[in-house]
Structures are given as C-alpha cells and as structure tokens.
Amino acid sequence: MKNRLYLLTVAITAAFVCGCSLPTGRPIGGVAGLRHRSLDSGYKFLAGIDASGKTVVWGSPDSKVVRYFKLKPSPKNQIGVAAGVEHLVSLGSDGQVTAWGPESDPACQVNDNWRYEQIAAGGFYTVLVRKDGVPMFLGPDADKQDWERKLENGIHARGRVLEGAEPWPSAVFCGPESVSLITRDGRLQTWTRQWADRFSYKIRSGLRDGACTQRFMVLLKQNGDVSIDGLWHDPSWVEDRAQPEPPPSLHHITRVAVSENSRVMALDQDGGIHEWGHGLNNQYRKVPAKPAAEIVAGGHFQAALLKDGTVKIWMGPLEYSYLWPNREKELTPPPGLRLMIQKDRERVDGNKVQPIESLRGCPKNGGP
Questions:
Q1: CA–CA separation, 173 vs 220, rounded Å?
Q2: What does the radius of gyration of the chain's CA atoms come to, in whole angstroms?
Q3: SS3 call for 154
C-alpha cells in the first residue's frame, strides 16, 4: 500500500510540474489494455508488427496495399498499425508514420514535419494524433462526396486539424463513414458523413474504446463491459433495436471489433475470444483458440494475434464458399511469422504501474 501511495504521489507531482492535471479518462485500477495495435485488417489484407519491429503485410494478391507494400519496405522499430479499406499506416517509435497505398490517396499523404503518438484508419481516411495532442484528419479531396465538401468548408479537410476535437484523446477509432475519439474523461466525440459535424454521443462518460460499422457502434466501457447502440442518423433502425446485443454474462473485456457483416468480437482479460451478432445469425459463441492478445475484424473475416505471436484467421462457411473462394489460402500468414506482442499498458495492472506515459502529452507553455 505504501508503494502504491508513493507512486501516486509521484504521478500527481509530475503532473503539477508539467503544468496539467492527470487525465481522468485513465483511472488508476481497472482492466489493463494495449495502447497500440500489433495487428489490423483491411478489406482483403492483414498487417502486423513482426518480432523484428517491422511492418508485414499479407493477403489477397489484388489488394492495393499488398501490391504497394512490395514497392516500399517497412522501417524498423514500428509499434503500431492501422488499416483502412485499401490503405495502411504504421507508427514508429520515433513518432514517424509510414503509409502504403496509392500516392494520390489523401489518406496516405502524411505530413513528415510532425511526429505522432496515435494512429487510426477508417474506410478511406486516416486520423493521426500529433505529439502535441492535436488530432489530424487525412481524407479525400473536397470534390469527391458530400461529406468531404462540407469538411472543406471549414470543418476539416485533408491534412487539417480535426476541428472541435479535444486534445490528447485516450483512444481513436474509425468506421466506414465516421471518426470517433474517446476523451480523457471517457466521453465520446464522433464525426459522421451524414452530419459532417461533431456530435457528442448519448453515452457521455465511462468509455474506453470502441469499434464501428455503418449502422451501429460497439463501445467498451472503462469497467470492462460492452455496450452497443445504433447510430443517430438511422432512427428507424435504432427504434427497431436491431443491434446485436452482447450476452449478459460478458464482462472484463479489453478489446472489441466488428466486421462488415455485423459480427461482433470481444477479447476478455484472460485472452478468450467471444463472438455474436448478425453474421452468426444472432448466436453467441466462444472461439476455440489459444489465449489471444489482439482481435481484428476484416471485410468478411476475423483474425486474432495469439499470445504466442502466431495469427489465427477464420470466417463463416458462406464467406468461404461464396464470397472469397480463395480467401483462406490468400490470408494464411507467411510461414514462420511471429508478431510482436505490445507491452505498453494504458492503466495500472494489479500492482504494476506504467511509466507516467499519460503525462507525456502535457503542452509546454500552453501550446505545441
């Protein structure tokens, strides 16, 4: 107890010296989790950080990312990956971001003059949190679609600051047509294609992370529970309660993911993988697998990074036989592949206290 009180005193003192308070969105105690993702999936590919610290990519030969990755080797010392439909970004320990995809794709046009500490990727865009805590949006040009036109008109366009976003978000996640931030005190901020504006979701506190489809959100609470709700732009769908509700017995969750066919995944603190939702005919099951460290959901497949560094990939019989007859072979990890298991923790895990990473983002002299 004395050691814990001492460490807490050190943290509070450091916060005072730095000139800002401890982020209330990361309470002492609670479920431990990973800050960066070692594995992520696009529509037809998977990407991860291997044991040497380099980004690796594999998947369908007709994936743009798979093709472009062959032309651009990965830097060393990578600590996280984020995948969109057909682009990929990777974060280095030095704060530099590397992107793979068409050079003309705005989601790949990262400003090398900045250093970053968080990355996320959605359908056709990228969100980067700079070292000074400012979230940046990279997306299509203004002449493409309605959302981008509105973004160009002063809200946020490619390479622009994500206007209205609170600095130093504790988590960032993207859906096919939305961007969401979890603030330091656990609230949700979301920008959607329908509204092209900031919208504070009705669950306003106690959140930790999330995942999103085009029609509903899977929200991970700070206490390890899972909440699912429809998006506000489809009120009839919300009223019908068509969301795939989580099983009542589901607790102590550390990660969530959701596929395009509305198959929801959850990873518990012991490494167990849970699935339910429309892609499983609204049935629940626990995936037979060794303990996992990460879970991801692709276009029509699911994958997990197991704690031994290997990757498990699976999909339903319909996807095997109809959608992607060659997908199983194409998505098989390269022989001998072992991925890096991230060690950086977001919260206190038992009596183990992380370095005061949450204070790293305190602005100096009131600004970047």
A1: 12
A2: 20
A3: helix
Hunting for tokens 């793979």 — which residue is that?
100
| DSSP 8-state assignment for residue 247 | P
Quote the CA–CA distance of 41 and 341 in Å, as a whole number: 16
Per-residue pLDDT of the chain (368 residues; tens, 9 = 90+): 445 444 444 443 433 333 333 333 333 333 445 778 999 999 889 999 999 999 999 998 888 999 999 999 999 999 999 999 899 999 999 999 999 998 778 788 888 888 999 999 988 889 999 999 999 888 764 334 434 434 444 333 446 777 788 999 999 998 887 888 999 889 988 887 654 455 566 666 789 999 988 778 899 999 999 988 766 544 444 444 456 788 888 999 999 999 887 889 999 999 999 999 876 777 899 999 999 999 999 877 899 999 999 999 988 766 555 555 666 678 889 889 999 998 755 443 333 333 333 333 333 333 33
266 φ/ψ angles, rounded to the nearest 5 degrees: -140, 140
In terms of Cα–Cα distance, which of 298, 256, 258 is closest to 280?
Answer: 258
Percentage helix, strand, coil for the chain under 3-state DSSP, each rounded to 5: 15, 35, 50
Instruction: Assess contact for 320 and 328: CB atoms under 8 A.
Output: yes
Q: How far apart are CA 363 and CA 8, in angstroms?
A: 21
Beta bridge partners of 50: 339
For 228, residues 6+ apart whose C-beta sits below 8 A from its C-beta are: 216, 217, 218, 219, 243, 244, 245, 246, 264
User: pTM, whole model, 2 decimals?
Assistant: 0.79
Distance CA 353, CA 362 (A): 19
Residues 6+ apart with CB under 8 A from 199: 189, 190, 191, 192, 232
